[in-house]
Amino acid sequence: MILRGRGLRAALLALPLAACAPTIIPPAPPAQPPAAVPRIVDTDFTLSGSIEQGGLATGIVSAGTRSLSLDGKAISFASDGRFLIAFDRDAGPAARIEAIAADGTVLRHTVAVAPRQWRIESLPTLPRGTKPTPEFLARRKLELDQIAAARAIDSGSQGWRQRFIWPATGRISGVFGSQRIYAGEPGAYHAGVDVARPTGTPVVAPADGVVILAAAAPFSLEGNLLMIDHGMGLNSAFLHLSRIDVKVGQAVKQGETLGAIGMTGRATGPHLHWAVKWREARIDPAPLAGAMAP
Fold first, then answer.
1. How is 108-173 classified by DSSP, letter by letter?
2. Which of 9-13, 43-47, 94-98, 270-274 shows the lowest mean pLDDT across its residues?
3. Which of 31, 38, 210, 256 is the most exposed place for a label (fewest CB within 10 A)?
């Protein structure tokens, strides 16, 4: 059927408005300039200390540095540019430090982490141990939660800048990193250094710090546990004490008495177990304090 005249006009009026409207093409957005690619420069951060498994080192960044990271994880640095880095007992052979300079330049440095030989003792006929009871696991979780909460505290202490001293002197009865292999199954490695002395021997602060944990009752493994924050993510733990002489929140000075050696918790004789940790890295306390005076 062919429509003419009034019929055609009526048909056109009956069409939907959209069918008659012209197609409008929006203007193209303005072209964006390509994102600037940051300039990457290999540099040196003037590191000093023990750049090895279980070691702690200090470094310095230039003025105006925006941010700093170790293997992709942000780390803090002081107003004068100084910072700490540490390497766990089982750290890999290399680590990467990156800083963002004031002009956006990425300053990058790859650190070669020296390996160490650990004292490994094989006990082929001795099983690793009995399975822990549900009661022990429940208690242990509460203790580990307290330890984690304490380590999360940033006291702002400047003790990390000091050369550490030994908290007690005597026979070294346990070294950092040693490990037993029970019937082919590795046990947990020793994460501190043990100093054997009689019960009641004073324990002093190895560096300035703030008390972040002072056990109100003996922990299942650590016994009377004391922890000190030295600032910049570095903290000390003192295990098996016979007594604790300081309180949470108290600032302590290097050489100040903290408590006394004992054999509380899981210990076969009186000794101090001194452990040091930077962030998640367990490090060897012995190089921090240097040679022990006789």
1. EEEEE-B-----EEEETTS---PPPPHHHHHHHHHHHHHHHHHHT------GGGSPP--SS-SEEE
2. 9-13
3. 31
- Domain extent listing, the chain: 40-112, 120-289
Please indicate, yes or no, whether the overall pTM of this predicted structure exceeds 0.90: no
Class of domain 120-289: mainly beta
> Class for domain 40-112, per CATH?
mainly beta
Query: Is residue 61 a contact partner of residue 106, using CB atoms and an 8 Å limit?
Result: no
Question: How far apart are alpha carbons 155 and 229 in whole angstroms?
Answer: 7
8 A C-beta contact, residue 235 and residue 228:
yes
Cβ atoms of residues 50 and 88 within 8 Å:
no
19 pLDDT more than 60: no
